[in-house]
Design a protein that fits this description.
Chains A, B: One of its GO terms (biological process) is transmembrane transport. The structure is a homodimer of 586-residue chains. With 586 residues, chain A is mainly α. Chain A has 27 helices and 8 strands. In chain A, a hairpin with a 6-residue loop joins strand 3 and strand 4.
């Protein structure tokens, strides 16, 4: 996609063909999503350590901003669990939860992460998100789910406890568990049990009662709404808030405030790294949800343009009293399943939330916090995937290590250091691996011009030519390794007169490796061995041609390994039909 | 080399065959090296901000320790320029130069870096040094040379100025240049001119006078000794030290003291990173000198065992009043050229330095500091290689960037942060490069079974099979890139029924890339395209076999690309003789 006004304003794509059918579908989806989003927004704001109504503010203008600048037709933007947890940790590092400074820090985080996302979009830096491997993301989400569920236990027990890591949380709960409010615990436990039942059993039950699959699904997802309504009614009827059951309390009614985050350079600087991590994690979560949904309808999303959409949504959140937002999985799926056709569904959802905050806030005053905590606990339960540890272990020890380190550090030290550790470990293991490349002595597969590892295949080799395939680009970290291996191979094979380095897997030769190759050539020459290359790729060859290497090389550069062997050891290439003597390598 | 007592005590290798000829050669070399090493040790200690005699202490027991544990026959260990500069910066970050705490910090650095080197040896971590690319080392050495020469200007001018970076040094010199002592400047400038003349002109002159090449070379290298002797005599005769010419002063005579560095946990911790950097830089410098010399005599050095040798030398330096040491280039070459046969030459050199400190220290009392500074300036001049910038630029922009960043940060911010920046930049550029791999559509080179890029070669391709070679291992950083590219290629080629991914350059498929391949297979399948792999390497195939990927794959895995084409598009493989229609790719 070249530069194009539609890249900046992707809504032009769908606005031209918008018709009444779209309008109906979008409106229906918006009603469904609004009903689900209201309790979710209150709950996630509470998880972020913010007053519940901040969650509603974060679900209005950001949705409109995303509808204008985002490329996904069905992504539903707003507060999500993992980003709320990261906001709690980041704002908690500069202010006390509950204080006005804490709320101000959340605003700064939203604006800062909006600016970072927009800047990344301008600089085409969306690829940075690729450096978060699946294993690190999966470990991060699992560990965050455990942290989130544990952090909500205080609301279920009706106690005061805080902390950003498992040791802190567990110690905090253990120290205050004596003060458990049993009515709160009863409400919380009942809500958890009910929500799990809804999640696992309600849908099959509704299907058996004859409801169509789609409706059964949406009704099952509306479980939290029922829990909220029932528990609020119960608390109000029995005045349980007088008995120590903590409730949401009065929510200021009215339009979201216009907020301009204070500009304090040192505060912005201290929040810059957390904001960057929130941006990248939010971006990765959002893009993977959007791509999953887009693929189902053969639509495409443009990852780089998504940066503008999410950037705009976060700036909007920061300017209207919210906190960092991103595309959420559950609500996007609900939006999609409820039939949303275009981002206008998001605009209608925003209108629904706005109506809620203007007219319906009194209904939430007696909503028990324990029920919000229960909806969070049940929601994050699906994030925890400990089975991934076993699957990853079986496939790749390096991926397992990255995942395990991420989980351990997130749980023990916190979300930010945890995700950074995961990235560092996964990159370090990749670099370590490339620093000691696999190398194979190759011979010809009988009847073909194909050369493979003598240790794995029945192949034809000769005495005087040593063909070595090196399975990595040659760069500083492995240049000396290659040198040492070649010298070792030569030392144990006195009959060898030619070494052919098969470069089919060499995608780059950097300056350090070039010096190594020159040194090898010199040293092999003085030992009476000629050094050749074969199957050097175009881009690598272009580079080599700009140096003196090819002029000094004792041997030649062959287009293919077969050509090299035809020139250096014709006997090895004889017997195309596989009748030549076959030497099976040791 | 498996585990073996000779690995721990490599001197057993040469001690058995030691004879009188070896003894004579080693003794002669030791005399030559001792004469050169005395002024050099005084000078480098001064560069490190330490009293000059510390340099002599660092040239006694460390040499004996290296002789016992090192593997190079001719490496001469002791104070060197770059490590002295790093010591000055590191000790200067915790204490004031000239203070007893500064000397104590240097001792800690020596012991700590000795322990780090030994630990790296035990853990086989010698490969870590490979992560310093040629470009970073070259940039680091050049910038260090400039910093060192500039830092010595204060001694030539006879002023007080200090600093660890160019801006600090230049500001310091500018602020105090009014206090220049012109006699000092005269001596310093004359010494510099003389030493440059010796370096460039003396050897050819001596050859013309009929001296053999070897003797002329050694005499030319003894220039500093002559400068030291002549300037000391001059200062003593004219009592110039009374006229403000700073001299070395009284050197405590006697055996090196036994020192046990104070153990203060926080001080050791603060010096740990500098000690690690000193260890790695010293190790890299030492190993490259040792390997160069070993190659000339067809000897081998074992890089991992070298860690024990250098570790022992540094621990010895720390226990006998010295500071960090490593193998030096100039002195090792002199040792080698003077005919040293075994590390016993180092032991004899240590005895020579010991004799100097016991009996000859009064001779150095009137030695002007400006002359020591002149020997340093002339010595480091050969380290500065600005031409490398141009050569590297022409070969590789990534290598150039790493080198330029290293030089700039060393000069502007200091040696430690400079080398770390260089490593980070070079690794980041490597990772960036692997995150967007080169990909090529390939076709058959007529008359062969070899497949190459359609854009570079005249090759045969078909309409229904798209063969794509991806030139990189598949891992998290490029998994999505590959996915997007394949989708784009398919979207513009509606006739394609098969995609063959030619994996000759794929050395690894990690868990993230495996998920991408599964997603691609699913998506291609639903678009009516079959997905195949060819030339998958043994180690990669072993991994894939442990998963469900191969069972679900819509297509097949072919041993070679030729086999794939023979099965999927026989027309493309027809005409072995090159008579088939040739389609030249766009």
């Amino acid at each position: 996609m070249s530069f194009d006004i539609r890249r900046l304003l992707p809504f032009l794509d769908w606005a031209r063909t918008y018709d009444r059918r779209h309008l109906t579908n979008d409106a229906v989806a918006a009603v469904v999503v609004t009903i689900m989003l209201v309790p979710q927004s209150l709950a996630y704001a509470m998880l972020a350590g913010l007053p519940p109504h901040i969650g509603l503010y974060a679900s209005i203008l950001p949705l409109v901003a995303y509808a204008l600048f985002g490329t996904s037709r069905t992504l539903a933007v707003g507060p999500v669990a993992v980003v709320s947890l990261m906001t709690a940790a980041a704002a908690g590092s500069v202010a006390t939860p509950g204080s006005p400074e804490f709320v101000a820090a959340a605003l700064i985080l939203a604006v800062e992460s909006g600016l970072i996302l927009t800047l990344m979009g301008l600089l085409n830096l969306g690829f940075l998100a690729n450096f978060l491997s699946h294993s690190v993301i999966s470990g991060f989400i699992t560990a965050s789910g455990v942290l989130i569920a544990t952090s909500q236990m205080k609301h279920i027990l009706g106690i005061k406890a805080s902390g950003d890591t498992m040791p802190e949380l567990v110690t905090g709960i253990a120290a205050t568990i004596g003060g458990t409010n049993f009515i709160t615990l009863g409400i919380g436990a009942a809500a958890i049990a009910f929500l799990f039942w809804v999640r696992k059993r309600l849908k099959p039950l509704l299907r058996r009662l004859g409801l169509p699959a789609g409706a059964a699904d949406i009704l099952a997802k509306a479980g939290p709404v029922f829990a909220v309504a029932a528990s609020t009614a119960l608390v109000a009827a029995l005045a349980l808030d007088q008995a120590g059951v903590k409730v949401v309390g009065a929510i200021p009614s009215g339009l979201p405030p216009l907020t301009l985050p204070v500009f304090q350079a040192d505060l912005w600087l201290r929040l810059a790294l957390p904001a960057l991590l929130i941006s990248i994690v939010g971006f990765v979560e959002s893009v993977s949800v959007a791509q999953t949904l887009a693929a189902k309808r053969r639509q495409r999303i443009d990852a780089n343009t998504e940066l503008f959409g999410l950037g705009a949504a976060n700036i909007a959140a920061g300017l209207t009293g919210g906190y960092p937002v991103t595309g959420g999985f559950t609500r996007s799926v609900v939006n999609f399943d409820a039939g949303a056709e275009t981002p206008l569904a998001g605009v209608f959802t925003a209108a629904g939330i706005l109506a809620t905050i203007l007219f319906f806030t009194p209904f939430f005053e007696k909503l028990p916090q324990a029920v919000l905590a229960a909806t969070i606990i049940v929601a994050v339960f699906s994030l925890v995937d400990l089975g991934a540890l076993g699957r990853t272990w079986r496939y790749s020890k390096a991926d397992f290590a990255a995942m395990a380190v991420t989980i351990a550090v997130v749980l023990l030290e916190g979300v930010e250091i945890g995700i950074v550790s995961g990235v560092v470990v996964s990159l370090a293991l990749f670099l370590y691996r490339t620093s000691r490349p696999h190398m194979a002595i190759v011979g010809r597969v009988p009847g073909t011009e194909h050369f493979r590892n003598v240790e794995r295949h029945k192949v034809i080799t000769g005495e005087t030519v040593l063909s070595v395939r090196v399975d990595e680009s040659l760069y500083f970290a492995n240049a000396r390794f290659l040198e040492d291996r070649i010298y070792d191979l030569i030392a144990s094979r006195p009959a060898v007169k030619h070494v052919v380095l098969l470069c089919s897997a060499v995608n780059m030769i950097d300056a350090s490796a070039l010096e190594s190759l020159e040194a090898m050539d010199e040293r092999l020459k003085s030992a009476g061995v000629t050094f050749h290359l074969s199957e050097v790729k175009g881009p690598v060859m272009d580079r080599l041609k700009a140096t003196h290497f090819l002029a000094h090389l004792s041997g030649r550069v062959f287009l293919s390994q077969a050509e090299a062997m035809a020139a250096l050891d014709p006997a090895c290439m004889a017997g195309q039909g596989g009748k030549a003597p076959v030497a099976v390598g040791a």
